[in-house]
Amino acid sequence: MTQKILAGIFASILVAGFVFYPLLVGSPQPVKSLNTEVTPTGVNKKVTMIANETVVQIAPDNALHPGGVMYNAYTFNGTIPGPTVGIDQGDNLTITLINKGKLIHSLDFHAGIGPSQVLSGSVSPGESKTWSLMGINGGGFLYHCGADGLNGVWEHIANGMYGTIVVHPQNEQKAKEFAVTFSEIYNNADPGVFNEVNGTGSFDIGKFLSEDADLVLTNGMAFKYVPSVGQVSKLELNPNATVFKVKPGEPTRWFINNPGPTDGVAFHFISGQQDVRDGFNAEAKDYGVTQLNDENWWIPPGSTSVIESTFPEPGVYVAVDHNMADVVKGGAFAILAVDNSTATDIPDGAWVPPKGSEFVGGNQQAQWVAEYGGGQANQTATSGSNQTAA
Ligand SMILES: [Cu+2]
Fold it and tell me: What predicted TM-score, i.e. pTM, was given to this entire model?
C-alpha cells in the first residue's frame, strides 16, 4: 500500500514537471499558437497610448449639419480613431497606456492571444500600465477600450476609443496601404440628420440601444474624404476634404476597421472590385484568400478586414458602406486614380506604418513622409529594436 502511495506521489511530480516545464525553463522557440508557428524577429516596438476625454469635431459644416458637429469624445492620443499601430509578424509590441482622463479606461488588442497579451486591465485616472503582445498572426485587427472590466465598454467604444493594429505577415506583397475606420455616433444633441445640432453632444444610450445612429464616421469624421456629391446638381459635403490618391493599376491594400459599436459595414468600391484577404494562409506567412473579385464584403462590428484592389482606369472611384442610410450619415470616401500619385500622399488619419520599417504609429507620419518622400515609402526601411512612438 505504501509503495502504491509513493508511486502515486512520484507520478504526480512527473506529471507536474511536464505541465510546468515551460514555466521552469522559459518559453520554447518558436512560438506556437492556434495554427500558427512564428519565430520571434527580436524586434521590440513600443507605443504609448494616452486615454482622455476630449471634445472633437465629427462632422464638417455643410447643408446636412449646419455649423458642423462637435462631440464629447473619449480618445486615445486625442483623436478618433486612435493611431494606427504597425508591427511585423513575430515582433514584440510593448504598449504603455497612460490615463490622463477622469474616467477608468483600458485597452483590448485583438491582435494578441491570451488575456495577459490582449488586455491592459482597468487603469484609473492618473495611472498607467505597460505590457507586451507578440504579433503571431498577420492581418488587420481592432483595438478598443474595454472601460472598467467591460462595465460601460459600449459607451467608451461609441465615444471613439478604438483604432487599428496591423500585423504585417512575413511574405506580405508590396502595396500602397491605407487604414480606414467606419464607426457610428449616437449624439444626444442631434435632433436628426437634416437639422442643426444643439451644441456639443454626448452619448445617447436610447439611440444606441435602438441602433439609431446620427453619423457614420470615416477616420473620425463624417464625409472626411468626400468633397461633394452630384454631377449636375452638386451638394458640397466637405470643402476641406482630402481624397485618397493611387496610381492607375497600382496594387493597394485597405485595412477597413469596424469598431461599431453595433452596425456592420457593407464595404464596396464604386467602379471597382476587391479581393478579401481576411484570415491567414496555410503556411501562416501571408494573408488568407477569402474572396477574389468580390463586389461587397460584410465587416461585422469588432472586426478589421484586409481588402486588396487595383483601380485600372484613371478617374474617381468611391468606397461606400453600401447600406445607403449609412452613406447619408457620412460612410463613404473618394479615391482618385491619377498618374501623379506618389507613395507618400496618404490622407490624414489613413497612414499604416509599413512592413519592415522602424515606424510604429502614433505621430510618426510626418517623419515617415520626410524620410521616404522620394517615392521609397513602401520600401523596406532599417529594422531595429526598441522603436518607440508616442
Ligand atoms: Cu475608455
Answer: 0.88
